[in-house]
Amino acid sequence: MTVAKHGKSYVEARQRYDREHQYLPSEAVALVKQLKSSKFDESVELHVRTGLNVRHADEQLRGTIALPHGLGKDVKVVVFAQGDKAREAEDAGADVVGSDDLAKRIEEGFTDFDVAIATPDLMPVVGRLGRILGPSGKMPNPKVGTVTMDVTKAVQESKAGKVEYRTDRTAIVHMVIGKSSFDEQRLLENYAAVVEELVRAKPSVAKGKYIHSITLASTMGPGVKVDPSRTRDILGEAPVAA
């Protein structure tokens, strides 16, 4: 069994901070930016381990949130629609619009998009793409507003940075909250929005400790532990910018 080895810059970065300490959110954001070493603009990732039993349907988390400062990237949106709704999607700024032809492209390997939206009448067409779109979290779903007749609103919100969150099989929520080029305040505000949303969305049937751990990291950088008890007044704990 081969064990992956980290590069020199990664190893050096891990030696520049206390890997076991749980930092304040503002401290963690600052550290993640300082520990970035690659030349490209890395994404900043948030990983929240919950105590939910996701084997029970009523303890699964899934929803959407519009980040205050977006993701720092051009969100590519495809829409399954026809007729007037197809024209509406195009006018709203959708990157690709289609029906059976779009489904065929995806079956043939087209996955270069971030969000898929569909009108209800085309869900039978989209349904056969479940094995492709499901694992990547791109399957349209009425619960998160991506199966809708209001395609203009859905496209515009997705383009503006509305993102989906969900627990995986191990009860962890993985999300991108911005780019390492964002200043600390913008990253902190996106972080606060996500954490506050997860707290708000806590299933009423959940028992025991809800948030077990929170980790922040850039794409190529080491993880920084964040104090999971700091879920309220996150922005109030941040140092005032000069």
UniProtKB/TrEMBL annotation:
<dbReference type="InterPro" id="IPR028364">
    <property type="entry name" value="Ribosomal_uL1/biogenesis"/>
</dbReference>
<dbReference type="GO" id="GO:0019843">
    <property type="term" value="F:rRNA binding"/>
</dbReference>
<keyword id="KW-0694">RNA-binding</keyword>
<keyword id="KW-0699">rRNA-binding</keyword>
<keyword id="KW-0820">tRNA-binding</keyword>
<dbReference type="InterPro" id="IPR005878">
    <property type="entry name" value="Ribosom_uL1_bac-type"/>
</dbReference>
<comment type="function">
    <text>Protein L1 is also a translational repressor protein, it controls the translation of the L11 operon by binding to its mRNA.</text>
</comment>
<dbReference type="GO" id="GO:0000049">
    <property type="term" value="F:tRNA binding"/>
</dbReference>
<keyword id="KW-0810">Translation regulation</keyword>
<comment type="function">
    <text>Binds directly to 23S rRNA. The L1 stalk is quite mobile in the ribosome, and is involved in E site tRNA release.</text>
</comment>
<dbReference type="GO" id="GO:0006412">
    <property type="term" value="P:translation"/>
</dbReference>
<dbReference type="Pfam" id="PF00687">
    <property type="entry name" value="Ribosomal_L1"/>
</dbReference>
<dbReference type="GO" id="GO:0015934">
    <property type="term" value="C:large ribosomal subunit"/>
</dbReference>
<keyword id="KW-0678">Repressor</keyword>
<comment type="similarity">
    <text>Belongs to the universal ribosomal protein uL1 family.</text>
</comment>
<dbReference type="InterPro" id="IPR016095">
    <property type="entry name" value="Ribosomal_uL1_3-a/b-sand"/>
</dbReference>
<dbReference type="GO" id="GO:0003735">
    <property type="term" value="F:structural constituent of ribosome"/>
</dbReference>
<dbReference type="InterPro" id="IPR002143">
    <property type="entry name" value="Ribosomal_uL1"/>
</dbReference>
<dbReference type="GO" id="GO:0006417">
    <property type="term" value="P:regulation of translation"/>
</dbReference>
<comment type="subunit">
    <text>Part of the 50S ribosomal subunit.</text>
</comment>
<dbReference type="InterPro" id="IPR023674">
    <property type="entry name" value="Ribosomal_uL1-like"/>
</dbReference>
<keyword id="KW-0689">Ribosomal protein</keyword>
<protein>
    <recommendedName>
        <fullName>Large ribosomal subunit protein uL1</fullName>
    </recommendedName>
</protein>
<keyword id="KW-0687">Ribonucleoprotein</keyword>
